[in-house]
Amino acid sequence: MRKYTQFYIDGKWVDSVSPKTAEVINPATETVSGTISLGSEADVDLAVAAARRAFASWSQTTIKERLDLLRAIQAEYAARMQELGEAVTEEMGAPLSLGCGFHVGLGAGHLQTTIEVLENFKFEEQRGNTIILKEPIGVCGLITPWNWPLNQVTVKVFPALATGCTSVLKPPQLAPYSAQILAEIMDKAGTPAGVFNMVQGQGSVIGAALSKHPDVDMISFTGSEPVGVQITKDAADTVKRVGLELGGKSAWVILDDSDLAANVIAATAGMMVNAGQTCSAGSRLLVPASRLAEAVEAAKAGAASVTVGDPNGNVGMGPVVSKAQWNIVQGYIQKGLDEGAELIAGGLGRPDGLDKGYYVKPTVFVTTNDAVIAREEIFGPVLVIITYDDIDDAVAIANDSVFGLGGYVSGQDRDTALAIARRLRTGAIWINGGFDFHAPFGGYKRSGNGREWGEHGFAEYVEVKAIMVGGEG
Ligand code: NDP
Question: Where are the alpha helices (H) located in 253-363, listed in sequence order?
């Protein structure tokens, strides 16, 4: 049983000002796995004040000093990878192989990438008579979700630190363990007091207090669209910068020239990684109308290949994060049935043999792009297949969404795939499975306004100053 009832403020572990606590539920067992403190505005005030004090000196550190700290954090992180992976599995239900693999690997990747970017980042450049400086924006409020908890914490905390900012992290109540361990890592690595702070608690209290705080200079948020809108409104009175990484309903276009069966199987199983709780999941699979029957058989095989069960066992998919999320996903499956979509795999209820835990059947529908299940982000292992007539039609369907986060193209002909990628109104597109830690990640339209990962992630945390130098004074 974990007991994380202290916050990391000003380089120390301190008791919460508020006496409130909350139980954390293991989604695989539906039992309590631990307790966290729920902070108050007073805890936020203490953390922000510490971050403000630390900013005076941290913003003046050299690149070498910041690199030294990042490397010390890297060593501590490497020593606790197994523990971090286990925490992810316990808090949000990812299979242990995924928790210790990709979840922890993403954090390690962002750390290494931050180091590489910092080694080369131009904080100062001369253009004609003008010196352009990129200076740390100040105290940053970092608000993160539960779905890829380590990824979203590390993609914010490390660039903030690397650019000379100080920060206050508010991890998700549903998945607080990995963030707590990361705070221990930051502490052990010798992060100077106040440079990084962490306060656990409710978004409506801690997140809102950070968003409204007059001494917080920017907010970086990943999560749902309504909360992103609320944060933007809360931050407006103090004219903070707000970076938003929100939801998606990304299209995966399977081209006629590709190995359709293999790609549909991979896309179906791939969408269900992390129980479909990925903002950039390829949750709309676009296939040529003439090959629907073939695609349906492949999607059935893809869904059947996803083994569901105890995340500590050898499975492909664990539970979704919470009872509330399970209910949301079931609601969408029911909606699909009510809308008359053709159910070709999965469906309502838990998979056979699983009576406890928030498990969902890998589910696939064939439908049209105007269906609710094709338009709204489900955030569970529910894929919709939509047919297209030709490439223009595929592009039109892919772009017919309020979201614009990701996109995928599978095809033999590189030029055709690239031409489609250029026409998609989304922030990131993967062709035949490409991946790059240095590639910017973020959304068009209602998927957000910021860019994280790599060098673009640094831009979120810097102010740009121009110093124009004239003649003799
Ligand atoms: P939320 O957007 O509610 O939560 C994300 C973070 O914001 C959490 O830390 C949360 O705190 C915090 N928060 C909540 N309310 C406020 C507020 N008023 N001000 C500041 N911060 C706040 O996402 P959920 O976890 O509730 O998930 C709901 C849906 O959001 C999912 O079903 C999915 O569709 C989408 N989502 C998208 C993600 C993405 O990566 N694009 C990630 C996660 C969710 P608390 O700990 O109280 O929850």
Answer: 260-271, 292-304, 323-339
Question: Catalytic residue positions?
Answer: 245, 279
Any residues with CB less than 8 A from the CB of 293 and at least 6 apart, and which? none
The preferred substitution site among 224, 240, 328 for testing ligand 1, maximizing ligand atoms within 8 Å of CB, is 224
Which ligand 1 atom sits nearest the alpha carbon of residue 210? 20
Q: Does the C-beta of 147 come closer than 6 Å to ligand 1? A: yes
User: Where does residue 43 rank: exposed (0-12), middle (13-18), buried (19+ CB within 10 A)?
Assistant: buried
Q: What are the backbone angles phi and psi of residue 85, rounded to the nearest 5°?
A: -65, -40
**CA of 176, closest atom in ligand 1:** 46
Does ligand 1 lie within 6 Å of residue 246's CB atom?
Answer: yes
Based on its alpha-carbon atoms, the radius of gyration of the chain, rounded to whole angstroms, reads 23
> Can you list the alpha helix ranges (DSSP code H) found in 237-276?
260-271
Contact 251, 397 (CB under 8 A): yes
Sequence length of the chain is 473
Q: How far apart, in whole angstroms, are the C-alpha atoms of residue 241 and residue 137?
A: 9
pLDDT average per 10 residues of sequence, the chain (473 residues): 96 95 98 97 98 98 98 98 98 98 98 98 97 98 98 98 98 98 98 98 98 98 97 98 97 97 98 97 98 98 98 97 98 98 98 97 98 98 98 98 98 97 98 94 97 97 96 80
